[in-house]
């Protein structure tokens, strides 16, 4: 959770003092709720005018508690409502003017907003192709390329689920560094292999007649997936240290 308390949009107050924070500190605060966020993502949101941190005379960014809360609001609206940055900016600007505005809902989204994921939720809402393009802020040709390389695919029932939206955004972020879909095929293949290993572990539990045992299988699969992601990240960091030193 963020270490700020909010008294409304754009009015976060620090629980201790309100000392300016470096971008690295901001990243640590946001990652509790948004594990996929990166420094490059924060810089991109700044470049798009979603947040305006102060700068030291030497050019270093210094973020306030309000800046951190605003970033969290942006990330929530992207995650929970699939909104493009232009719409998010307009929404936050309206709130800053004291206007009472409602978030536009996407097709298939529950009336209360947010994704109905987690225990007791049978299905998650899906969005259409146009909404995915807006959420990832890419073109039709970009999405066509991703689908041709197997990085993104619609569900069998049609539409794109929340995880696919996350994948699309990450692929778009990597693309800003010059990484093309063909470069990411190895990541797709590695993910498929890891999923296969996890499936082998939980398959006996999923075939069990006891509903509680099957539920335990799903929980175990999620935990194994999280550990797999953490291991992958650590291995990449270790490999980079060897190459860069």
What's the topology here?
Blueprint: E1 4-6, E2 12-14, H1 23-31, H2 39-47, E3 54-55, E4 61-62, H3 65-81, H4 85-96, H5 129-136, H6 140-148, H7 162-175, H8 185-206, H9 211-244
Antiparallel strand pairs: 1-2, 3-4
Please give the order of strands in the largest beta sheet: 1-2
Q: Provide the gyration radius in Å.
A: 20 Å
Helical fraction equals 40-55%
What's the SSE pattern? EEHHEEHHHHHHH
Number of helices: 9
Secondary structure: number of strands: 4
CATH class of the largest domain: Mainly Alpha
And the CATH topology of the largest domain? Multidrug-efflux Transporter Regulator, Chain: A, Domain 2
User: Would you identify the regions where 5 or more consecutive residues have pLDDT less than 50?
Assistant: 3-16, 106-123
Per CATH, the architecture of the largest domain is: Orthogonal Bundle
Rough outline: globular
Structural class: mainly alpha
Task: Offer a concise description of the structure.
The chain contains nine helices and four strands, in the order E-E-H-H-E-E-H-H-H-H-H-H-H. By secondary structure, the protein is mainly alpha-helical.
Keywords:
single chain, 245 residues, mainly alpha, Multidrug-efflux Transporter Regulator, Chain: A, Domain 2, two-stranded antiparallel sheet, globular, disordered N terminus
